[in-house]
Amino acid sequence: MNATSSSSSASPFDMVSGALADYIPKGGAKAAAGRADSPGGDDMRPPRATGAEPDDREQILGAVNLDRDLRITSCNVDAAPFAGVTVAPGDSFADLLPPGDVPTVTRRLQRVLDTGEAHVARVQRLRRSDGSELVVSMSILPAATPQEGLTVSLIAMAKRLHLYASAAAIGTSLDIGETAQSLAQSLLAWGDVAAVDLDYAVWTGEAVTEQAQDRIRLRRAALVPDRAWPEGYLTPGDNLPQEASRLLAGAVMRDDVPQAIVVSEREAIERALGDRRLVRALVPGDQPVSVACIPLVVEGPHGAPGPIVLGVTEVWRRPERPFREGELLDLQELVAKTARHVDLARQHQREHAQVLALQRRLLPRVGSETIEVASVYEPTTPDSAGVGGDWVNSFPLPGDRTALVVGDVVGHGLGAAAAMGQLSMEARALLSAGLGPGEVLERLDETVTLLDDTDAGLAAGYSALGSTCCIAVYDPVDHRVVMSNAGHLPPVLVHPDGSAKAVSTQPHPALGAEFAVREPFDVHEFAAPPGSLLVLYTDGLVEDPSASIDDGIGRLTDVVREVHPWDDLQQAARRVVARLAPQEPLRDDVTLLLARMAGRRGRDTVTWRLPARDDTAARARALASPVLRRWHIGCPYRDNALLVISELVTNAVRFGTGPVTVRLVRAGDRLSCEVGDSGNGRPRLRRGVPLDDRGRGLHVVHKLTTRWGVRWTETGKAVWAELEA
User: Fold this and answer.
1) Which of 144, 222, 402, 501 has its CA 20 to 30 A from that of 253?
2) Banded model confidence at residue 535, pLDDT cuts 50, 70, 90
3) Run of H or E residues at 501
4) How high is the mean pLDDT of the chain?
5) Which helix (H) or strand (E) holds 16?
6) Is pLDDT at 386 greater than 90 in this prediction?
7) What tens digit of pLDDT does each residue of 70-93 get?
């Protein structure tokens, strides 16, 4: 290619020319410059080698000069690899491109014109006059001064160059479909049609270990070029018939070793398939054709008997262009490089599915008669680092209360998922054990610090420091919420009248922030009357690079204010996410929890505050008896309930301090009894000792109730028990 170099010795044109020097045979450029443009025939046979030069040392470089209207002013594409590419001065460069590529390439050309910055080494397809396509590496350069316009250098993808370019392009995605499509596009340089068929287990992320030919199932993952194919021909997404899977798998397994094979005649292909239906499914068209089948192979795990076949690639072309031995070696090298990427994509798919399953498992299931919950979780796209550590959860607590928890664990992937699962389960266990939101966050803070130690069981290099969490506990009897926050974004509370505001607590660092002053977690309590809506979320819902986080919270507040009390809550949650979530691809997980407070009806609850005296137990029985009758609780259950109330009040008077609070709640066929005092001693069930009366009351409670426990409060403790009503 003859061109005038720019004044700068480091110009893009010089850089591309220098990089190609090793791939142009001596005298090749002069020969190319001396030949006139030919119309390009249909002879697609590879050029013959001359002298001692190897077959792949052919002239591979061409050039096309364009004016500012992107029309061809001069060209030099008469080398053998460009045979069939018709180029003439005055034509639009778009005429060389497949129709689907015209908009993208035109934008690239125009960008180089506008900015003067070269666009170097992009894999591109060119149209041949016979309808086939030629794969080239295309660089777009500003024309060398004093000329104007562009110089487009075209490198017919010589096999070694193509291997290097394809290896770089194929490994850029962890999506199985995109990886297979990139491989098929690269294989097209060796033929007219390329297909990639993968084992079904690859798509699901399973370990591909079964090599029995009668068990192999293949699915078409990619097929190029993209055109209208005859009816019955397998296209991406189609499962190969079982017979076809066995034939392809058996074809590449010789002496129990996966190897590439070539079938050079259509008649031989039809004899091997033995079924016209299979011929229609696997052979592209009715014309003479040859095929090279190359297995996708990776090394088996430690202790495995041999390599693992992930799938099969097929390259089809006309029989007058036989596959040379060197081409087969190049094909095998390219497919071998790609097999590793396919296996990485399979592992990523498995990890993605595992993390996503864990995320879904942590989502709230259903609410109760006192609170309605709805949640939406949208993970980041599979091409990201994996599913993140955002999570929400809601679950019932003793005493008719409900916990609402939202958290954001640092990072993505299995490390974040493991930390997320551990924090979520620990929060649930501690809340169920009676600890308040602030105390639970103190324990989680210690846990995150321990998780930063790689010896604690997580993958080396992962750190959960800086994770955030917000815990709210809703009491449907008092219609109040107790909340504590560790560095998380504030929830939004929508009142029944439609007013809304963010519920902020005293600022506190995220979990595991040892560098900060260790202050206790602030506990904030606020009213949530029936009909209120509490909104918990993670930052992926409200973050916008062009605006502040406060603006995002303000947008969320405006949107949730429009949720009507009669709206279906799950549909409302989806509408909120649809209006606020950024357009794909998502930058972060999007998580939302809506909780609509219904409360407990006044006629189903009673609360008494009694002095701590010797007759308090009798007073509590006298107050509770008519209430239990009014609730239509039968005699045996009523007697049991009165005995449990008496024992709990007696313990509160004997071992506690200050006044005693008695609360009864009827919830369907369940009766909840809670007795609170200002003491801090924890009642414990002891093994009975003869002639020792201590602890007999708790044994009675244990026998008569379905479950019982202790809940810690700001002023002391509350012992609760649940009975059948």
Assistant:
1) 222
2) very high
3) strand 500-502
4) 78
5) helix 12-20
6) no
7) 999 988 887 777 878 888 889 999
pLDDT tens-place string over residues 650-683: 988 888 778 999 999 998 888 999 999 888 777 7
How many angstroms separate the CA atoms of 465 and 451, rounded? 8
Strand order in the sheet with 388-397: 388-397, 401-412, 468-475, 480-486, 523-527
Tokens (6 digits) for 385: 């680092």
- CA distances, 463 to each of 351, 427, 452 (Å): 18, 19, 5
Lowest mean pLDDT among 226-235, 572-581, 626-635: 226-235
d(CA 611, CA 657): 10
Look up tokens 């089809």; give the residue. 316
Q: Are 445 and 486 in contact (CB under 8 A)?
A: yes
CA dihedral sign of residues 333, 338, 340, 342: negative
Count the Cβ atoms, other than its own, within 10 Å of residue 435: 19
The rounded distance, in Å, linking the Cα atoms of 639 and 704 is 10
Mean predicted confidence (pLDDT) in 379-403: 74
- Residue the block writes with tokens 């986080």: 549
119 contacts 139 by C-beta, under 8 angstroms: yes
In the block, residue with structure tokens 């794969």: 135
Which value, to the nearest 10 degrees, does the dihedral of the CA atoms of residues 504, 505, 511, 514 take?
Answer: 130
Asked if the bond preceding 490 is cis, omega within 30° of 0, the reply is: no
Helix, coil or strand: residue 257: strand
User: 220 has which bridge partners?
Assistant: 197
3-state secondary structure of 215: coil
Most confident of 21-25, 447-451, 711-715: 711-715
Which residues lie across from 308 on neighbouring strands?
A: 298
C-alpha to C-alpha distance for 561 and 501, rounded to whole angstroms:
9
Encoded tokens for 144: 């060398």
Residue 644 is predicted with a pLDDT of 92
DSSP string, 411-480: EEHHHHHHHHHHHHHHHHHHHHTT--HHHHHHHHHHHHHHHTSGGGSSPTT---TT-EEEEEEEETTTTE
**Complete edge-to-edge strand list for the sheet that includes strand 261-263:** 218-224, 193-199, 308-317, 290-298, 261-263
Residue entry with tokens 């639009």 = 92
Among 680, 668, 661, CA closest to 720: 661
d(CA 191, CA 72): 28
pLDDT digits (tens, 9 = 90+) for 299-344: 765 555 566 778 888 999 888 888 877 778 878 878 887 777 777 7
